[in-house]
Design goal:
binds pyridoxal-5'-phosphate, 15 helices, seven-stranded mixed beta sheet, globular, Aspartate Aminotransferase, domain 2, 2 domains, about 400 residues
Amino acid sequence: MPLPSIDQLRQDTPGVRHGIHLNNAGAALSPRGVHDTIVGHLEAEIEMGGYEAARARASRIEEAYRSVEALVGASEGTIAFVENATVGFTQALSAFDFRRGDRILTTRHDYASNHIQYLALGDRFGVETEVAPETPEGGVDPSGAMDLIRRRRPRLVAMTHIPTGSGVVQELEPIGGLCRELEIPFLVDACQSVGQMPVDVEALGATFLSATSRKFLRGPRGSGFLYVSPRALDAGYMPLFPDMRGADWVADGLAQPAPDARRFENWEFSWALVLGTGAAARYALELGVEDIRQRAWGLAHRLREGVSALDGVTLLDRGALLSAIVTLDPAGAGEAMVEKLGAMGIRTSWVDRSSAVLDYDSRGVEGALRLSPHAYNTEAEIDLAIDAVEESMRALRTRNEPARRSPRATGG
Ligand SMILES: Cc1ncc(COP(=O)(O)O)c(C=O)c1O
């Protein structure tokens, strides 16, 4: 079924009336139905109390699990709801009893927090991080990575599907296939890919996969999920600190892990946001994720063509396959661009070097302007954004405004 008309997509999305939203890689505009679902549950909570509302709406909560499973091609019982992608990722990392000299194989494009966590594991346990080679056009080189996996047998392979600071879609499927064959766990950060393109945990060969709700999935802030494969569950992987949802305290000296992925959840969190995530997954499935991808990537392509023709702009996206994340270096105009574009009603973000140290340092960039369209954006909005980028750069150059640092316009 093709996507509904653009008018329908925009009617579903109240936020489009308040500006041109090109910050879906930061936090997207939620459809009305997601908002209503969350508010509906909060209403139930004030009427009957939080515990009672969760009990009364248990079947809707179960449905949220089913919707997210369907979204990523996962089997029943393999999704844990968590507060955000980072919590999902660290819960998975905590399941390994790392020893000195263990290796984690990752990529140049892995999220900053993930790299920081690998460094923390290095400091505490002597875990070594190795970065897989890149293809000449950009993105992880699957054959180089597979060669390293065969020769060096890392304890864990952890890779980001689409990074925060570049449009590349990394080709992870062959790497996941090899990991599966060699029984090496494969942890995928799909934070930016879920919701903007079909993501299939089986095709990726993921042992674990983490994601967040608020980005291309268009769910609420403060909610995310972790996929835990049946083989990880069968192998007995547990987070380091399960609580009474992750395990039952069955006797003195004995706790029994939950049989499914809920082993990676905490007892207390916001069911309203879980329901909102489920509603966002259902909405994406109803629209058709492949159709969403085609439309969003088509808009990103138009944007890239337009901005790359502008004087002084360097497009930073490199890779065989490019997503709905467009990054560019605005010729020294820097972070002030976000404010300038914001004043014109266009919402973008700035990715600082500290979010992409390995990638940006390898190319000598200090940061990037990121514009990330979604299916609900229009061609006219993209064309306005291209003109606005040109105008902002000109204004910043002629007024010779210094590239000021504004209070963190960035974020993931
Ligand atoms: C690739 C990637 N991974 C992980 C994260 C972290 O997500 P969260 O803030 O939900 O923990 C982000 C956020 O921008 C991201 O872009």
